Amino acid sequence: MNENDIKHFIKTTINFFKDASGYEAKCGIPSVKTSDPVVLEYTGIIGISGKRKGSIYFTSNAKLLSDLAKIMLQTDTVYNEDIRDLVGEVANTITGNLREIFGSEFLISVPVIVEGQARDIKLPDDIDSFVIPILWQDNKAFLVICLE
Amino acid sequence: MEKIKILIVDDSSIIRKIIQKSLTGNQFDLVGIAGNGASALELFKDKQPHIVTLDITMPEMNGLTVLEEMIKIDPKVKVIVISALSDKATGIHAIKKGAKSFIPKPFTTEDVQKTILKLAESI
Question: Does ipTM surpass 0.95 in this model?
Answer without folding.
Answer: no
